[in-house]
Amino acid sequence: MINFKKSILAVCITSLVLAGCAAPGGQGGQSGSVNSDTALRCAAFGVGGALLGVMVGGKGAAVKGAAVGLAACAVVEIASRQTKSSATVDEQYRSSNRNQLPQTAKIDAYTMSVTPNGVAKAGDAIRVQSSIRAISGVRDPVTEVKEQLVVYAPSGEEFKRGEKKVNDSTGSGEYENTFTLRLPDGAPQGMYKFKTQIFLNGKPASVHESSVQVAALDLPSPHMAVAAR
């Protein structure tokens, strides 16, 4: 009976939060900025997630629930472009490898960086930029190069993810891919981990990780180290 009541309450909380978020305009005739409305809806997500966490797992799950709720308001924008053609990349590879291409498709180079190089604040744009060079093999060409980003909250829980196919055509190429993450007001403070991974022709390949400190909006921005590897 207790579990049944918890389930009913959880459904009610979820419905209430979603109802509030589904009506961004509010009642007719009321005024208010879009930013204020968004902040209120994101706060509702956070509170609703925390309440659901309490219902399901007690106090320990409240923080995790709030982070999951706020993640719904986090935005990830993705943009990519080709920086070197297939012919150029193949020629450069051959010149360093006895005029031969590899037997199978491979990721020849992959770098990732995160900005700002210091403390980020909720609402600031956090950019994860990658440079990717893929080489077609003698036996199989490059058909798909996809990059995936997974962001982990300070609690260690997955907070947000995004992915994008960066190549438009088959063959070798060099690409620049950028994920731009905007955290909502009220997002948990602390160290966020950013993990990127390349999938080449559907198979997992290179991985990079980096961490960024996120501070409250009203705090100054002291120079703090960004741990990366």
From TrEMBL:
Keywords: Signal
Signal sequence residues: 1-22
UniProt-recorded name of the protein: Glycine zipper domain-containing protein
Species name: Duganella dendranthematis
